[in-house]
Specification:
Number of helices: 14
CATH topology of the largest domain: Rossmann fold
Strand order of the largest sheet: 9-8-7-10-11-12
CATH architecture of the largest domain: 3-Layer(aba) Sandwich
Order of helices and strands: HEEHHEEHHEHEEHEHEHEHEHEHHH
Radius of gyration: 21 Å
CATH superfamily of the largest domain: Glycogen Phosphorylase B
Number of strands: 12
Length: 376
């Protein structure tokens, strides 16, 4: 059950959903996909990898802060969805708290149910509030964070909770004791990093998200303000504040209308992928992408905290350390040894087929436990 139509797979959550579907299909799993439509259209490509596809309109409320349920949950309440879930007795995968409206419903009692958590949502919304400049959005994010913190207890109704990062798994396990780590699903089948040297740094992300806008502004105003090494910023929906910050800086370029294929080419061609973040929730898919596609990577400690990926990056935090790292790395060659290390490690850690098998094994384990409890 997906919180949005997962195609095109061009932003964090739907990327994980789409490539999970593709991997499950490759394993021969017959998928009944239930989608909520949110700013997208039906995607015929899903019919090629799913046994059956259902679409539901997400509700819209005039008052976004009315009621005790989180808006992202209450707006995905659809009786037709429940009726369709009751047509069979198949296992159910809920993608995020967003889709959990019917998780505690007594009609689904006894079903084999797993929730995929894409974030610790209350923490994520708290951080969105902290970086949001629009007063109404800031107020909404604050209220949503409080509602999500209370609502998260619904996870006790699931057989298992699939965390997207080791850190999230540890937190969820402490809270509910039914969690396991399911690595993020992604678009990369192999490491395609280029040997040699590039001549610019690259930052990428959906710039309409407050966290990414803040990171891009920080790079422009604090790191590349007097560091004349070229910086390319790639992402849709850049803010006016970011556009203004870049004005007059000829070494900084903004690309807000590029295809996925072009982003891959730019990632491969860059000498350095710069990825600061001020939120340590979830697993940053853009980090996974640049590990498979790019050369050198500079991050702050928040980006790689408890991800087990710090050995593949240069980790710095202070402004002076960031500038020194860029100066040091800009003249280094990315070698065959660098590529081989990623091939050996990352293709094992983030293998979509292996991780789809892990998910199916967890569902199978749930089924065995239920049979044992019934004395079968």
């Amino acid at each position: 059950m997906s919180f949005n139509v997962p195609f095109p797979a061009n932003y964090g959550g739907v990327i994980d959903v789409f490539y999970k579907l593709r991997a499950l299909h490759a394993l021969g799993v017959k998928i009944h996909l239930h989608n909520f439509i949110y700013g997208r259209e039906a995607a015929p490509v899903l019919d090629q990898i799913c046994h059956k596809v259902y679409y539901y309109q997400r509700k819209r409320f005039a008052n976004l802060v009315f009621g005790r349920l989180p808006y992202i949950v209450a707006s995905r309440n659809n009786k037709e969805l429940l009726q369709n879930l009751l047509l069979d007795n198949h296992p159910i995968l809920f993608e995020g708290l967003h889709c959990c409206y019917y998780l505690p419903d007594f009609k689904l009692k006894g079903r084999n149910m797993v929730v995929r958590m894409h974030n610790l949502e209350d923490v994520y919304y708290q951080k969105l509030s902290a970086t949001e400049r629009n007063p109404f959005k800031k107020y909404f994010f604050q209220g949503e964070a409080q509602r999500l913190k209370q609502y998260e207890k619904v996870l006790t109704q699931a057989n298992k909770v699939a965390a997207i990062s080791p850190a999230d798994r540890n937190t969820l396990q402490e809270r509910y004791a039914n969690s396991f780590y399911l690595p993020v699903f992604h678009a990369n089948d192999k490491v395609v990093s280029k040997l040699g040297m590039g001549d610019y740094a690259l930052y990428q992300g959906n710039l309409g998200v407050g966290e990414n806008n803040e990171a891009a502004l920080w790079l422009v105003n604090e790191i590349f303000n007097d560091l004349k090494y070229p910086l390319k910023i790639v992402g849709m929906n850049p803010s006016r504040e970011l556009r203004k910050a870049i004005e007059g800086k000829s070494h900084i370029s903004l690309y807000d209308k590029v295809t996925t294929a072009e982003i891959v080419r730019m990632t491969q061609a860059a000498q350095i992928n710069v990825l600061p973040t001020f939120q340590n929730t979830g697993m940053k898919l853009k980090l996974i992408n640049v590990l498979f596609q790019g050369r050198f990577i500079i991050v702050n400690s928040t980006m790689v905290e408890n991800t087990e990926l710090e050995n593949y990056c240069t980790v710095v935090d202070s402004v002076s350390d960031w500038k020194n790292a860029i100066i040091h790395i800009q003249k280094q060659n990315f070698t065959e040894s660098d590529v081989n290390q990623r091939v050996q490690d990352l293709t094992n850690m983030f293998n979509n087929l292996d991780n789809a098998e892990l998910l199916m094994a967890e569902f199978a384990s749930n089924a065995k436990v239920r049979l044992l409890r019934k004395g079968v």
